[in-house]
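Lecture 7 notes: from sequence to structure.
We start with the chain below.
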Amino acid sequence: MTLKQRITLLIQLGEYLLSGDEFLKAVMHRTQYNNAWLTVDNCEKSVQAIGQNLLQASLLENWAKTYDVQERTISKKVGLVMTESIPFSNFPDLLAIFLSGHQAIIKLAEKDRFLIPQLIKKMGEWDEASKSYFEIVERLTGFDAVITTRNNGAIDYFEKYFGKYPNIIRKNKSAIAILDGTESMAELYALGNDVFEYYGLGSRNVSKLYVPKDFQFEPLLEAFHEYNSIVLNNKYKNNFDYNYAMLMLNKVPYKANGCIILTENEAITSRIASLHYEFYDKADTLVVEISRRAEEIECVVSNMHLPNIETIPFGKTQQPGLTDYAGGIDTMEFLINL
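Predicted structure tokens for the same chain:
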């Protein structure tokens, strides 16, 4: 397939995702049945974000031009080890592999085995030639390069196993939010979306707040309470109850509102149904701290001006664009240079 043909097919895929296709919805229901974290509602949110922010004609064309993607006579086989943290979590990687003209050798996540195959199937129906760009396998073999994101406990294993190949092996990161106490209720409510969407399981979910020492938590907890329907998910509620019980048992100070538990903690990543916070004195010293811990941070949410730190508006972390690469690693540059 030519680059133009691949872009045309991706545009068609975007239209399909935004069409409300009933069969795709049935696949979402099947996915939820097999993995209670991947709810139909969250699948639909992910589909909308992909269709609107990744698969639009002008976006794809400009992306390809930026990297001067060339027509390939010989493509590489790129192993893609999927994760199951949020719906379609590895779609940006799959998109980059296809657009760059390589073949994706896909190892599906154990509890997310239907969503991505459905998209590949539809593309094959529209253009038979696209089938040669995707292969779903139970075990990766015969690949030239590897892309994956793993939890930090598995990083050493994956680096040992795949380290001799060109690779992107990302560590899990989390987003942070920096507040100054002047945020409106609307901004705090939007921040709740960054915290609660996808049950907080994504690398772009906010798991820690930096707040000034005189910060008033009551408005924040009130705004977050608008998301209290999240506890209707039994898996989330079980995590909330467990964390709550452990804090009480260990007499750890906390703040809670029935759907989230806040504790003062220096760690960036927090448990499910929990959110860490840390106080700061001055914004300039905080900038130094954030820069020092950049390897742990996926993105920063704030309305403050922070020198040399790129920030995202409240409520927008789960709407990444084509160049908002996971882990801050330029996936497309890696692929075109294989």
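Points to note: Residues 174-312 form a domain with the Aldehyde Dehydrogenase; Chain A, domain 2 fold (CATH 3.40.309.10). The two ends are 19 Å apart (CA to CA).
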